Amino acid sequence: MSYNHILVPVDGSQISFSAVRHAAEIAKQFNAQLSLISLVAEDPFTDVDFYYSSAIMKEYFVQAYQNAEKALQEALKIADDAGVSAQPKITKGEVSAEGIVDAAKDLKADLIVIGSHGNKGFKKFLLGSFAQDVLGSTELPVMVIKA
């Protein structure tokens, strides 16, 4: 089995950077394209019962994009250090498993590599598992990298 296009969601956490390291090694072995995405919520206050000003939204978007850019720059350096070039992309939309799956479809990726905390038991019940949600939302192969 080989892969042609690998997608890695990056959120700035060490777990996501670990996923980038693994994905870069796979991309190198298969001479595959590597795409790094960072999701930014279009409206983080959806379904909130108070009104917010456009100044709050502007500040949110400026900070969110700066954080996404910073995370992607660090991820690009990781890929570059592994000898792999990668294409970064900030995607506006829903920060969810569906957002990642939609990005994978749009980019025609054939593998998603995602980091996971590896929580178990009650902690997993309380926090949920984003990686688990991605697994359940796609037919693409998903490689989960545990921290």
TrEMBL record:
Chief localization: cytoplasm
Cytoplasm found in the keyword field: yes
Organism: Acinetobacter chinensis
Assigned keywords, A-Z: Cytoplasm
Domain named UspA: residues: 3-146
Annotated compartments: Cytoplasm
Keyword Cytoplasm annotated: yes
Name of one Pfam family that matches: Usp
Name this polypeptide is given: Universal stress protein
Family recorded in the similarity comment: Belongs to the universal stress protein A family.
